[in-house]
Design a protein that fits this description.
8 helices, two-stranded antiparallel ribbon, single chain, 10-stranded mixed beta sheet, globular
């Protein structure tokens, strides 16, 4: 089982994303989190052993208790439903006794390639948008568009999170504003940025996924941020469709995503206006120099 979900009571929700669901924890209903959107996957086969290697390495850095041996058992492969799966990671820490080495940035490199290879549709979901490298890659893809291209980005409304620094709100508005300005120069590009809500209450988007042309689907734990792509310990699984039945399954998944969000309110994000408003309220933020 792989995803970005935090296993705690305050993250629970149903696919209906009801405004006031009595099944949520009391603190979830009263405090920060209400409706909550997450995405995860279940996989079997040899890929599980590679996932275990990543988990074991992380486990050793956090605990002196050995990982249970029962997790060593290899899982059987259902050849009738076999899919091509790619594993990508972010690793910046070094284990005791391990020689120094460059950080692992497989997720960042993978996402850059997926964006560059997109042809018709690009669907992205994440908590926030804090990666200038991803923004620059999207802008490059937008500016070289010669065929119709639809880009959909779903992010959380973070305005109610008191701990979020104002400079990060400004940074996100700046990045998304750059995307919208680039898209305005290309009539063939339809850029849609949404913050979802349910009955006037924000839905916290905690999923991390990229769906490209119903050909690639990447799901895991990494956010669209430089920290997740270069500093944290993250992992993503990417499915590649190579045959007709695999394309069909990803198209069906795409339609299910659209159907899921059709029951919610999707508020368009005008990042250009938001950036101007933040700049007016806090002009000092515009003087911050950001590193890629």
């Amino acid at each position: 089982l792989l995803g970005g979900v935090d296993l705690c009571a305050d993250r629970w929700d149903s696919t209906s994303h009801l405004r006031n669901d009595p099944r949520r924890s009391l603190s979830q209903r009263q405090e920060t989190y209400g409706p909550y959107h997450e995405m995860g996957i279940q996989v079997t086969g040899p890929i599980c052993n590679l996932l275990l290697q990543h988990i074991r390495r992380r486990w050793r850095r956090l605990s002196s208790i050995p990982l249970p041996d029962s997790m060593e058992n290899p899982s059987k492969v259902d050849t009738a439903n076999y899919h091509h799966v790619w594993i990508s990671r972010t690793r910046s820490t070094i284990d005791p006794g391990e020689e120094r080495r460059p950080i692992t940035r497989e997720i960042e490199f993978l996402w850059i390639q997926l964006i560059q290879e997109s042809k018709r549709t690009l669907w992205m979901e994440g908590q926030y948008f804090w990666s200038r490298k991803i923004q620059e890659t999207l802008i490059q893809r937008i500016l070289r568009t010669k065929e119709p291209l639809q880009i959909t980005i779903l992010i959380s409304d973070l305005s109610h999170l008191r701990l979020l620094p104002a400079k990060m709100t400004w940074y996100q508005a700046q990045l998304l504003s750059g995307l919208q300005k680039a898209a305005q120069e290309r009539p063939l590009v339809e850029l849609r940025i949404f913050r979802p809500s349910s009955h006037e209450r924000s839905i916290y988007v905690h999923s991390k996924l990229i769906l490209v042309d119903d050909r690639y689907l990447s799901i895991g734990s990494a956010n669209f941020s430089a920290r997740a792509l270069r500093m944290d310990s993250e992992i993503m699984l990417t499915f590649e469709a190579k045959h007709a039945h695999e394309y069909s399954k990803l198209r069906r998944f795409h339609k299910e995503l659209e159907h899921h969000w059709s029951h919610c309110s999707l508020y368009p994000v005008d990042a250009i206006a938001e950036e101007k408003l933040i700049r007016k309220k806090a002009p000092i933020l515009s003087k911050i120099e950001w590193h890629k």
